[in-house]
Amino acid sequence: MSVKIENIQSELLSKNWFQLHKYTFNLITDNGKSVQQIREVYDRGNGATILLYNRQKGTVVLIEQFRMPTYVNGNPGGMLLEACAGLLDNDSPEECIRREAMEETGYQVDKVQKLFEAYMSPGGVTEIVYFFAAEYHSDQKITDDVGVEDEVIDVVELPFSEAIAMMADGRIKDGKTIMLLQYAQIHNWFK
């Protein structure tokens, strides 16, 4: 099916942190039917995430940090175990994820492998997330002082098998982390 979009009108609703717009438009379908739609769209920019893994040890590095939206939606402590990630700040996805890996985990990774990219919540958010992986070794750990500004972050190194079990039993609930762990599992990185 193909569609055309006509008469797009945009109204800025909020610009506190990022931008929230209300779009009114006509959607024209293949058969010529025109439907007016109204959608709120949150533009927070694009992001990148990375799975740090060590095949020799059979481990991955994740971070645990407070996430207010999860708290509001029923996560009792608001802490979330997840892959390192961040928003692109006028840099490439590769530059962004190297910076974020250092800031959030203390590991300086040189070679990063782009796996794929995905819209994470296309019903209301513009963000594309770029997914990466990099092998890490203990000599790449540059600092234990992680997090910037007001971030509260714990670095968690755990066996890959335990991360898979945590995903299966619901202790890991972050979508990007689940996607990265499943990618590693499907591609037999730890066999």
Automatic annotation (TrEMBL):
Mg(2+) 1 binds at A85. Its cofactor is Mg(2+). The keyword Metal-binding applies. It holds the Pfam family NUDIX. One of its GO terms (biological process) is ribose phosphate metabolic process. A motif (Nudix box) lies at residues 86-107. Keywords: Hydrolase, Magnesium, Metal-binding. It catalyses: GDP-alpha-D-mannose + H2O = alpha-D-mannose 1-phosphate + GMP + 2 H(+). Residues 43-180 form the Nudix hydrolase domain. It comes from the Bacteria. GO terms for molecular function: hydrolase activity, acting on acid anhydrides, in phosphorus-containing anhydrides; metal ion binding. Mg(2+) 2 binds at E100, E104, E151. Belongs to the Nudix hydrolase family. NudK subfamily. Nucleoside diphosphate sugar hydrolase that hydrolyzes GDP-mannose as its preferred substrate, yielding GMP and mannose-1-phosphate. This is GDP-mannose pyrophosphatase. It comes from Yersinia intermedia. The lineage of its organism: Bacteria, Pseudomonadati, Pseudomonadota, Gammaproteobacteria, Enterobacterales.
